[in-house]
Design a protein that fits this description.
alpha/beta, D-Maltodextrin-Binding Protein, domain 2, ten-stranded mixed sheet, 11 helices, 45% helix, 18% strand, binds ligand 6CS, transport
């Protein structure tokens, strides 16, 4: 019996490394009886295709970013809200681990759609890259921004004055190279490993949001498993919480210098000051109300709970 685990990234990248270590843990804990095969991105289609493969049970496990489930589970758009979480990834991971809004209110909405999230985790703070500098909302006027599929990500960039377009990352390098889009957002490890810096001249350390992803299983598959097997899976997910954090942290630290040192493809790197971030934050705040009204029946309750949790756990005023 072989189970399939599909991820949205390629070998060496954070999700793939996570899935491989997870598979090793499950193998070890079951004395070799449980075998999980990891499929890298591209083998089974686009990110959105992979969501469908999980809901249909064609794959048992998947790493799915909420950015690709925006029309299926509107409340999952919550992670598209910029400047909502804190600037400290460790605090953010703790909130993802412990939040009731996420783990008790949001999870059942995913499960109803055939996706059972077992863990929510960060792949690091996201940064902007562009073929022109991105330092003020003015710079986004008419800017063709590539985003993931979620309506609220598009809404967030429209609030800055940009013209966002959703596309798979499989098309993104060529899209940037040929000028179909002007820029994109991602954590540093991904920008470097996917070589987007080769086809972008500017990178802004904006920390406007963290990249959130989910370790998921097909609910029918999981609920049909023996209790001991479920326990092995659950324990492995728990052990991977810390490892997942370490993997992304290492890669995000290590890859910054790769972008800085690439003399053949120079990238001008700037960092937003707190004042510059405030200008974006101000435009991002009303998008929370848009989410409350358009993010599905439970959007308001979930966001109210989450805002309170973030404030309680970080001791910060988040607006
Ligand atoms: O930009 C994207 O769509 C991709 N970024 C990351 C960090 N992982 C997979 C995802 O598809």
């Amino acid at each position: 019996q072989e189970w399939r685990f599909v991820v949205e990234e390629t070998q060496g990248q954070v999700q793939y490394e996570y899935a491989q270590e997870f598979a090793d843990l499950v193998d070890e804990k079951s004395g070799g009886a449980l075998d999980i095969d990891v499929y890298e991105f591209g083998a089974l289609g686009s990110e959105v295709d992979q969501v469908e493969q999980l809901t249909q049970g064609i794959v048992e496990f998947a790493i799915i970013s909420p950015g690709f489930t925006g029309t299926l589970v509107p409340e999952g758009n919550i992670f598209a809200l910029q400047f909502l979480f804190t600037d400290d990834q460790e605090t953010n991971q703790e909130i993802l681990n412990e939040s009731e809004a996420i783990n008790e209110q949001l999870v059942p909405l995913y499960e109803e759609q055939g996706i059972l999230p077992l863990a929510f985790w960060t792949e690091g703070a996201m940064q902007w890259t562009g073929n022109s500098p991105l330092q003020t909302p003015d710079d986004f006027q008419g800017f063709q921004m590539r985003t993931q599929e979620s309506p609220l990500i598009l809404e967030s960039y429209e609030a800055y004055g940009a013209n966002p377009t959703a596309m798979s990352w499989g098309e993104l390098y060529t899209g940037l190279q040929q000028g179909a889009v002007d820029g994109q957002e991602n954590p540093i490890f991904f920008i470097a490993d996917a070589n987007f810096n080769e086809v972008q001249d500017y990178m802004t350390i904006s920390n406007h949001n963290m990249y959130v992803t989910m370790t998921t299983v097909n609910p029918d598959f999981y609920n049909g498993l023996d209790e001991e097997v479920q326990q092995i899976i659950d324990e492995s997910v728990e052990e991977m919480r810390e490892r997942g954090f370490e993997i992304q942290e290492e890669q995000n630290n290590e890859f910054l210098s790769q972008i800085e040192d690439d003399e053949d493809n120079p990238t001008e790197i700037t960092e937003l000051s707190e004042e510059e971030r405030d200008a974006f934050r101000e435009l991002a705040l009303p998008v929370r109300d848009y989410f409350r009204e358009n993010g599905g029946d439970q959007a308001e309750e979930i966001l109210d709970t989450l805002e309170q949790e973030i404030e309680d756990m970080s001791g910060e005023d988040i607006g």
